[in-house]
Design brief:
This protein is of the alpha+beta class. It has 10 helices and 7 strands. A 3-stranded antiparallel beta sheet has the order 1-2-5. The structure holds zinc ion (ZN).
């Protein structure tokens, strides 16, 4: 991601996605920054020294005002309503979810009747639209968010901003008619294909917030464990720290990652400055 952006003259933004206040811990951010610094992958924005210094527009837990403004904007156009449903209540209403599909919000609170003071949870109305977009790897795709997930949860029952709202507002950047502080508009989003289902709804939400043309998306395959399951922090798989402790050099870690991403034919040691050269 870093290499691709550098190869094409883009700027790399390090964004700390700690909108989930329950699961996020300050030590995760510190560890992430330290790993990137050790590898020599310096971002252009959201730089380590600035993040360490205090509140930052590149840390989601510091961006509540921007999310609040976006929600107010949508509410002003009648697109937001309070939702009193628990996940369990939604599941009881919709019945069992077929494998490979997600729980779709059936619109229980859509027509009103929930006291806004009773819950901080808010949903955004999604009109039933087909959203078409082009993925740089997978080609032309089409999704109907209203059928996939129903009206989007923007803030949950605990008052936390959701991933969907936070990333869409952050990707908008600041600018005429947009929300947020001094953050650049994101033009290219490179991420794992486990997030592909979110793309249509994020584009639809971005349009409601004033961005008619979506960013370019590239969804890459995930690195899997030998049994096919996803790498995860809870499985203690995140690699860099453990490899470093095992005596690997940054160059060896980067070379291995490039090889596993099919950027190299065989693993060899490479320096951070060489990574952009691996991209056409
Ligand atoms: Zn509801």
């Amino acid at each position: 991601m870093w290499g691709l952006a550098r190869a094409h003259g883009g700027r790399v933004v390090l964004r700390v996605e700690d909108h989930d206040r329950v699961r996020s811990r300050p030590e995760y951010e510190a560890a992430l920054i330290e790993d990137l610094e050790w590898l020599g992958l310096e971002p252009d924005l959201g730089r380590p020294d600035a993040l360490r210094a205090g509140p930052s527009p590149f840390r989601q837990s510091d961006r509540s005002a921007a999310y609040e403004a976006a929600l107010r904007d949508l509410a002003g156009r009648g697109l937001v309503y309070p939702c009193a449903c628990t996940r369990r209540r939604i599941a009881e209403r919709t019945g069992p979810v077929p494998p490979g599909e997600e729980l779709r919000y059936p619109g229980t609170c859509r027509e009103g009747g929930v006291d806004p003071a009773a819950t901080p949870a808010r949903r955004v109305r999604l009109e039933r639209l087909e959203v078409r977009f082009t993925d740089l790897r997978l080609g032309r795709l089409s999704q109907v968010p209203a059928d996939q997930c129903g009206d989007l949860l923007a803030r949950d029952r605990d008052g936390h901003w959701t991933y969907q709202l936070a990333v869409v507002v952050d990707d908008l950047g600041s600018g005429p008619g947009l929300h947020g502080g001094d953050v650049p508009r994101i033009d290219v989003v490179i991420r794992g294909e486990d997030l592909l289902d979110s793309t249509g709804r994020q584009i639809q939400l971005a349009r409601l917030l004033g961005r008619p043309e979506p960013p370019a998306f590239l969804h890459h395959p995930l690195l899997l464990r030998p049994d096919g399951s996803k790498l995860s922090k809870s499985n203690r798989d995140t690699g860099v720290r453990d490899l470093r402790a095992a005596g690997w050099s940054p160059e060896r870690v980067l070379g291995e990652a490039a090889y596993r991403s099919a950027l190299l034919d065989r693993p060899r040691e490479i320096r951070a400055e060489e990574v952009p050269n691996l991209f056409p």
